[in-house]
Protein backbone atom coordinates (compact mmCIF):
# COMPACT_ATOMS: atom_id res chain seq x y z
CA UNK A 1 0.00 0.00 0.00
CA UNK A 2 1.53 3.36 -0.98
CA UNK A 3 2.12 5.47 2.13
CA UNK A 4 1.65 9.20 2.48
CA UNK A 5 5.11 10.21 1.16
CA UNK A 6 4.54 8.23 -2.04
CA UNK A 7 1.23 10.02 -2.58
CA UNK A 8 2.96 13.38 -2.11
CA UNK A 9 5.44 12.37 -4.81
CA UNK A 10 2.53 11.47 -7.11
CA UNK A 11 0.90 14.82 -6.34
CA UNK A 12 4.08 16.62 -7.32
CA UNK A 13 4.47 14.58 -10.52
CA UNK A 14 0.87 15.27 -11.54
CA UNK A 15 0.79 18.95 -10.52
CA UNK A 16 1.11 20.29 -14.06
CA UNK A 17 -2.15 18.60 -15.08
CA UNK A 18 -4.01 21.25 -13.06
CA UNK A 19 -5.77 23.68 -15.37
CA UNK A 20 -6.09 21.13 -18.18
CA UNK A 21 -9.36 19.81 -19.60
CA UNK A 22 -10.14 16.09 -19.57
CA UNK A 23 -10.59 15.10 -23.20
CA UNK A 24 -10.91 11.33 -22.75
CA UNK A 25 -12.13 9.11 -19.93
CA UNK A 26 -12.03 5.32 -19.83
CA UNK A 27 -11.48 2.50 -17.37
CA UNK A 28 -12.97 -0.66 -15.91
CA UNK A 29 -14.30 0.85 -12.68
CA UNK A 30 -18.00 0.23 -12.16
CA UNK A 31 -18.30 2.19 -8.92
CA UNK A 32 -18.48 5.70 -10.34
CA UNK A 33 -19.82 7.33 -13.49
CA UNK A 34 -16.51 8.17 -15.10
CA UNK A 35 -18.22 10.12 -17.91
CA UNK A 36 -18.85 12.85 -15.35
CA UNK A 37 -15.23 13.98 -15.78
CA UNK A 38 -15.42 14.18 -19.57
CA UNK A 39 -14.86 17.76 -20.71
CA UNK A 40 -14.28 19.03 -17.17
CA UNK A 41 -11.27 21.14 -16.24
CA UNK A 42 -9.01 19.72 -13.55
CA UNK A 43 -8.74 22.60 -11.11
CA UNK A 44 -6.17 21.21 -8.67
CA UNK A 45 -4.24 18.13 -7.63
CA UNK A 46 -4.17 17.48 -3.88
CA UNK A 47 -3.44 14.76 -1.36
CA UNK A 48 -4.46 13.87 2.17
CA UNK A 49 -2.65 11.00 3.81
CA UNK A 50 -3.00 8.04 1.45
CA UNK A 51 -5.71 9.74 -0.64
CA UNK A 52 -4.87 11.24 -4.03
CA UNK A 53 -7.39 13.93 -4.96
CA UNK A 54 -8.29 15.41 -8.33
CA UNK A 55 -10.41 18.52 -7.91
CA UNK A 56 -13.06 19.45 -10.50
CA UNK A 57 -15.75 22.17 -10.39
CA UNK A 58 -18.16 21.13 -7.63
CA UNK A 59 -16.63 17.74 -6.86
CA UNK A 60 -13.40 15.81 -6.50
CA UNK A 61 -12.20 12.34 -7.39
CA UNK A 62 -10.56 10.40 -4.58
CA UNK A 63 -8.12 7.68 -5.59
CA UNK A 64 -7.05 5.21 -2.91
CA UNK A 65 -4.45 2.66 -3.97
CA UNK A 66 -5.42 0.01 -1.39
CA UNK A 67 -2.82 -2.78 -1.10
CA UNK A 68 -1.72 -3.25 -4.69
CA UNK A 69 -2.68 -0.09 -6.57
CA UNK A 70 -0.32 1.78 -8.85
CA UNK A 71 -0.23 4.58 -11.40
CA UNK A 72 1.47 5.62 -14.61
CA UNK A 73 1.84 9.13 -16.02
CA UNK A 74 2.00 9.48 -19.82
CA UNK A 75 2.46 5.72 -20.21
CA UNK A 76 0.58 2.49 -19.51
CA UNK A 77 1.35 -0.80 -17.81
CA UNK A 78 1.79 -3.72 -20.13
CA UNK A 79 -0.90 -6.41 -20.02
CA UNK A 80 -3.05 -4.45 -17.56
CA UNK A 81 -6.22 -2.46 -18.07
CA UNK A 82 -6.45 0.75 -16.06
CA UNK A 83 -9.13 1.13 -13.42
CA UNK A 84 -9.30 4.72 -14.63
CA UNK A 85 -7.55 6.58 -17.45
CA UNK A 86 -7.82 10.33 -17.99
CA UNK A 87 -6.60 11.76 -21.30
CA UNK A 88 -5.54 15.35 -21.88
CA UNK A 89 -4.25 17.44 -24.80
CA UNK A 90 -0.98 16.55 -26.55
CA UNK A 91 -1.38 12.87 -25.69
CA UNK A 92 -0.85 13.31 -21.97
CA UNK A 93 -2.63 10.94 -19.59
CA UNK A 94 -3.05 9.80 -16.00
CA UNK A 95 -3.58 6.05 -15.51
CA UNK A 96 -4.57 4.33 -12.27
CA UNK A 97 -4.57 0.58 -11.60
CA UNK A 98 -6.06 -1.73 -8.93
CA UNK A 99 -7.33 1.22 -6.93
CA UNK A 100 -10.53 2.52 -5.39
CA UNK A 101 -12.22 5.51 -7.03
CA UNK A 102 -14.84 7.63 -5.31
CA UNK A 103 -16.42 11.03 -5.89
CA UNK A 104 -16.44 13.58 -3.09
CA UNK A 105 -19.07 16.28 -3.39
CA UNK A 106 -18.54 19.92 -2.45
CA UNK A 107 -15.61 21.52 -0.64
CA UNK A 108 -12.77 19.24 0.45
CA UNK A 109 -12.27 21.43 3.53
CA UNK A 110 -15.60 20.08 4.77
CA UNK A 111 -14.38 16.52 4.42
CA UNK A 112 -10.71 16.50 5.41
CA UNK A 113 -8.91 17.57 8.56
CA UNK A 114 -5.70 18.80 6.96
CA UNK A 115 -4.05 19.15 10.38
CA UNK A 116 -4.09 15.35 10.65
CA UNK A 117 -1.88 14.79 7.59
CA UNK A 118 1.66 14.18 8.85
CA UNK A 119 3.18 15.72 5.70
CA UNK A 120 0.91 18.74 5.41
CA UNK A 121 1.95 22.27 6.28
CA UNK A 122 -1.17 22.34 8.47
CA UNK A 123 -0.03 19.31 10.53
CA UNK A 124 -0.80 19.89 14.23
CA UNK A 125 1.11 17.71 16.72
CA UNK A 126 -0.92 19.09 19.63
CA UNK A 127 -4.11 17.88 17.97
CA UNK A 128 -2.51 14.45 17.51
CA UNK A 129 -1.67 14.33 21.22
CA UNK A 130 -5.25 15.25 22.13
CA UNK A 131 -6.60 12.48 19.90
CA UNK A 132 -4.20 9.93 21.40
CA UNK A 133 -5.28 10.93 24.91
CA UNK A 134 -8.70 9.55 23.99
CA UNK A 135 -7.15 6.20 23.03
CA UNK A 136 -5.17 5.13 26.15
CA UNK A 137 -5.70 1.39 25.60
CA UNK A 138 -4.64 1.48 21.95
CA UNK A 139 -1.42 -0.28 21.02
CA UNK A 140 1.33 1.97 19.71
CA UNK A 141 1.35 -0.01 16.45
CA UNK A 142 -2.38 0.58 15.94
CA UNK A 143 -2.18 4.24 16.95
CA UNK A 144 0.39 5.00 14.27
CA UNK A 145 -1.82 3.38 11.63
CA UNK A 146 -4.90 5.33 12.74
CA UNK A 147 -5.51 7.67 9.79
CA UNK A 148 -7.63 9.98 11.95
CA UNK A 149 -4.49 10.72 13.97
CA UNK A 150 -1.59 10.13 11.57
CA UNK A 151 -2.96 10.39 8.02
CA UNK A 152 -0.35 9.01 5.64
CA UNK A 153 1.49 6.73 8.06
CA UNK A 154 1.63 3.14 6.82
CA UNK A 155 3.18 -0.09 7.95
CA UNK A 156 6.75 0.68 6.93
CA UNK A 157 6.71 4.01 8.74
CA UNK A 158 5.07 2.38 11.76
CA UNK A 159 7.77 -0.27 12.16
CA UNK A 160 10.63 2.15 11.58
CA UNK A 161 9.28 4.87 13.89
CA UNK A 162 8.80 2.47 16.78
CA UNK A 163 12.34 1.19 16.35
CA UNK A 164 13.70 4.74 16.22
CA UNK A 165 12.07 5.68 19.51
CA UNK A 166 12.77 2.28 21.13
CA UNK A 167 9.12 1.43 21.81
CA UNK A 168 7.66 -2.08 21.51
CA UNK A 169 4.70 -2.17 19.07
CA UNK A 170 2.41 -3.69 21.72
CA UNK A 171 3.00 -0.85 24.16
CA UNK A 172 -0.19 0.93 25.22
CA UNK A 173 -0.50 4.61 24.38
CA UNK A 174 -1.71 5.47 27.88
CA UNK A 175 1.35 3.81 29.42
CA UNK A 176 3.90 5.79 27.41
CA UNK A 177 5.75 8.49 29.36
CA UNK A 178 4.94 11.99 28.12
CA UNK A 179 8.38 12.30 26.56
CA UNK A 180 7.97 9.04 24.65
CA UNK A 181 4.55 10.03 23.41
CA UNK A 182 6.07 13.26 22.13
CA UNK A 183 8.79 11.30 20.36
CA UNK A 184 6.21 9.07 18.70
CA UNK A 185 4.28 12.07 17.39
CA UNK A 186 7.39 13.90 16.23
CA UNK A 187 8.99 10.91 14.52
CA UNK A 188 5.77 10.01 12.70
CA UNK A 189 6.27 13.25 10.77
CA UNK A 190 10.08 13.30 10.66
CA UNK A 191 10.38 9.75 9.36
CA UNK A 192 7.68 10.43 6.77
CA UNK A 193 9.84 13.21 5.32
CA UNK A 194 12.92 10.96 5.43
CA UNK A 195 10.87 8.32 3.59
CA UNK A 196 9.91 10.97 1.02
CA UNK A 197 13.54 11.97 0.35
CA UNK A 198 14.76 8.36 0.16
CA UNK A 199 11.86 7.35 -2.08
CA UNK A 200 12.60 10.16 -4.53
CA UNK A 201 16.27 9.11 -4.58
CA UNK A 202 15.30 5.42 -5.10
CA UNK A 203 17.17 4.36 -1.94
CA UNK A 204 14.29 3.79 0.48
CA UNK A 205 14.88 0.07 1.06
CA UNK A 206 18.55 0.68 1.81
CA UNK A 207 17.47 2.69 4.86
CA UNK A 208 15.18 0.07 6.42
CA UNK A 209 16.37 -0.69 9.94
CA UNK A 210 13.82 -3.33 10.93
CA UNK A 211 11.11 -3.58 8.28
CA UNK A 212 11.58 -6.95 6.53
CA UNK A 213 14.95 -7.32 8.31
CA UNK A 214 16.18 -10.16 10.52
CA UNK A 215 18.70 -8.52 12.87
CA UNK A 216 18.60 -5.30 14.90
CA UNK A 217 21.26 -2.90 13.60
CA UNK A 218 21.71 -1.40 17.09
CA UNK A 219 22.51 -4.47 19.15
CA UNK A 220 22.63 -7.44 16.78
CA UNK A 221 19.65 -9.15 18.38
CA UNK A 222 17.49 -11.31 16.08
CA UNK A 223 14.33 -9.33 15.36
CA UNK A 224 10.90 -10.54 16.38
CA UNK A 225 8.26 -10.82 13.70
CA UNK A 226 4.51 -11.25 13.66
CA UNK A 227 2.42 -11.47 10.52
CA UNK A 228 -0.72 -10.04 12.10
CA UNK A 229 -0.23 -7.72 15.07
CA UNK A 230 -2.81 -5.55 16.81
CA UNK A 231 -6.29 -4.65 15.65
CA UNK A 232 -4.89 -3.54 12.30
CA UNK A 233 -3.51 -7.07 11.75
CA UNK A 234 -0.43 -5.78 9.95
CA UNK A 235 3.12 -7.14 9.80
CA UNK A 236 5.38 -6.06 12.63
CA UNK A 237 9.17 -6.25 13.04
CA UNK A 238 10.78 -5.23 16.32
CA UNK A 239 13.70 -5.80 18.69
CA UNK A 240 12.92 -7.18 22.14
CA UNK A 241 16.27 -5.94 23.41
CA UNK A 242 16.10 -2.24 22.64
CA UNK A 243 12.36 -1.63 22.17
CA UNK A 244 10.71 -1.39 25.57
CA UNK A 245 7.21 -2.68 26.28
CA UNK A 246 5.07 -0.13 28.16
CA UNK A 247 1.90 -1.60 29.67
Largest sheet strand order: 1-6-7-5
Q: What is the beta-strand fraction? A: 15-25%
Q: What is the name of the CATH topology of the largest domain?
A: Helicase, Ruva Protein, domain 3
Total strands: 10
Q: Architecture of the largest domain, CATH level 2?
A: Orthogonal Bundle
Element pattern in H and E: HEEEEEEEEHHHHEE
Can you tell me the CATH class of the largest domain?
Mainly Alpha
Count helical runs. 5
| Helix-strand makeup class | alpha+beta
Give unreliable regions as ranges.
none
Gross morphology is: elongated
Measure the end-to-end span. 30 Å
Family: Belongs to the FPG family.
GO molecular function: endonuclease activity
Catalytic activity: Hydrolysis of DNA containing ring-opened 7-methylguanine residues, releasing 2,6-diamino-4-hydroxy-5-(N-methyl)formamidopyrimidine
Organism: Noviluteimonas caseinilytica
Amino acid sequence: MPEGPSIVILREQAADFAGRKVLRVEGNTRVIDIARMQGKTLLAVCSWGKHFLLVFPGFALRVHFLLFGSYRIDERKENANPRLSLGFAKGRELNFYACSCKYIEGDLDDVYDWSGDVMADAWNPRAARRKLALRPDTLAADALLDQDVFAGVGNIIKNEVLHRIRVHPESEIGALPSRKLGELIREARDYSFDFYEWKKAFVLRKHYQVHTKKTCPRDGTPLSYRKHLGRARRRAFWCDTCQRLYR
